[in-house]
What does this fold into?
Amino acid sequence: MNINNKPCPCHSDKKYKKCCRPFHTSAKVAATPVELLQSRYSAYALGVAEYIMDTTHPMNEDAKKPRQQRESELELFAKGTSFDALEVLDKGDYEASEQVAPDAEKEAWVRFKVTLEQKGHDASFSEKSRFIKEDGRWRYALAEELVDSEDADKSTSEIQTN
Ligand SMILES: [Zn+2]
It folds into this structure.
C-alpha cells in the first residue's frame, strides 16, 4: 500500500509525503516541539516504531524497555487504534531553573488532546508533555499531566454544579 499520496494521519490536510514523511525518513528534523508532536502522532498512527523510539528522550520509562518489545507494542497500538484528532491546546518554554535534563539546550511543554478509539471505546486523553532539545534535536521526555477523557468530563460537571 502506498500511503505517500494519502492525507497525512496528523490531520494537516497535506499529503503524507509533503507533511510527516520527511521526519519519519530522517530527511528533516522537527524544528519545534509542536512539529515533533505532530510527526510522532502520525508515526503512532502508522506504526513507524523506529521514529517513536528515536524521538523519545532516554529519561522516559519507555526508553528503558528492550527495543524489540517496544517495537511490537507500538505496532499493536497502531493496529488497534483509530487516530481521530490531534488538537494543540497551549504551549510554552520552561525557564532554565525548571529544566530537568543537565545537557538540555532548551526545554518546552505542549498541552494537547488526542481523540482515539480502540475497539469501539473512547481512548482519548489530554496531556501536558515535556520536550527536551539536545544536540539540535527535540525529543519527547515525559507526560507532566495526564487526564483521560472520562476524568475530563467529570471535572467539567463538577465545575458546573459549583
Ligand atoms: Zn503530518
Observations:
- The first helix runs from residue 21 to 24.
